Amino acid sequence: MTTRRGWMLVAALGGGIVLAVPASAQLSLTPPAEQKPAPKAPAQKPPPGPAPRAEPKASPKTEPKAESKSAKPAPAKKDAPAAPIDPNVDAAYGAYQLGYYRTALDLATKRATEQGDPKSMTLIGEIYASGLGIKRNDEKAAEWYGKAAERGDRNAMFALGMMKISGRGGPANRDEGAKLLASSAKLGKPEAAYNLGLLYLEGQIFPQDLKRAAELFRQAADAGNAEAQYALATFYKEGRGVEKNIAEAARLLGLAALADNIDAEVEYAIALFNGTGVKKDVPAAIALLNRAARQNSPIAQNRLAHILIEGKGVPVDKINGFKWHLIAKTAGASDPDLDARMAELPAEDRKKAEDAARRWFGVR
């Protein structure tokens, strides 16, 4: 059974170019028609410092649309009284983490103007770029990111590079954006290394260089970037830019799966199911497919449907199996074989499966 998914340029501040790079994995179940469900946005975590947050990924093969400047700003909590700046404590970022965005902006602006602090400048850029407690202003965001980037802040370089690539805060300039990503990557920013790798893979700004792309993916993967771990795993599976190594591919898929990368969860589950590059573990594979299916992965839902209907490693459960088939089909993962088998179900069982699918969607 083949699964194909794409990688995307992780865009700070929303928007960014998208590179669809198919990857395949085989599961010994009857294959459905090939589908490419849109990946879900990763769970957002607070940045490790006053750095730009990575916003949701764009969908594959879709050029990002600029958000309207008239968009309503995110609601902010009532600001706390301004506190004196302790040189040992980043009060501005502390206010930012607590949701006191205007207080954070005031404190960061004071420190940026009086002390020339680049991290404060980056934080100001993030607040303007995301419209946190104030009206979003891409031009001001780019201006503050630029000031911080000039002072060597790698997070600002990354954020500004992504803005220039996507054309936010000014005309798009992919060459300049790529240079900023390269500078940020040299300073150890994992997201910058990953995105720069995608640009080498794309081959538009730079000549296509799979070996260089793999090196950059490795840099980001070693720093714990799940998207890079997944991308590099695909390189090892296919022998692109690196020597083919199924065991290393499985190891990287496992790491990315632990970091909640849904694509990796599905492919690692398939590797576990078949014992490809890793010791065969059907119960663990089914548990991962269950997890990914409940996170709305149509591929996982389809594979789980086959497993339950055919009793592969679990007792046969056609009601739940066809429930997952119907859910996956709604998301575009069609499977004519399962359609035909469902038509052969007794009317009572077919209705139970349909009712279970309706409950999944909240329809009674």
Structural class: mainly alpha
Helix content: 55-70%
Using only C-alpha atoms, the radius of gyration works out to: 23 Å
What oligomeric state is this? single chain
Low-confidence stretches: 1-8, 10-74, 80-89
Instruction: Indicate the proportion of strand residues.
Output: under 5%
Overall mean confidence score, pLDDT: 83
How many distinct beta strands?
0
- Listing every helix as H and every strand as E from the N terminus to the C terminus, the arrangement reads HHHHHHHHHHHHHHHH
Number of helices: 16
Measured distance between first and last alpha carbons: 33 Å
Shape: globular
> Which sheet architecture does the biggest sheet show?
none
Task: Compose a concise summary of this entry.
The chain contains 16 helices and no strands. The chain is mainly α and 364 residues long.
Structure, explained:
The protein is globular. The longest helix is centred in the first third of the chain and has 15 residues, at 101-115. It has 364 residues and is mainly α. The two termini are 33 Å apart. α2 (101-115) runs antiparallel to α3 (118-130) and α12 (282-294) packs across α13 (298-310). Helices cover 55% and strands 0% of the residues. It contains 16 helices and no strands.
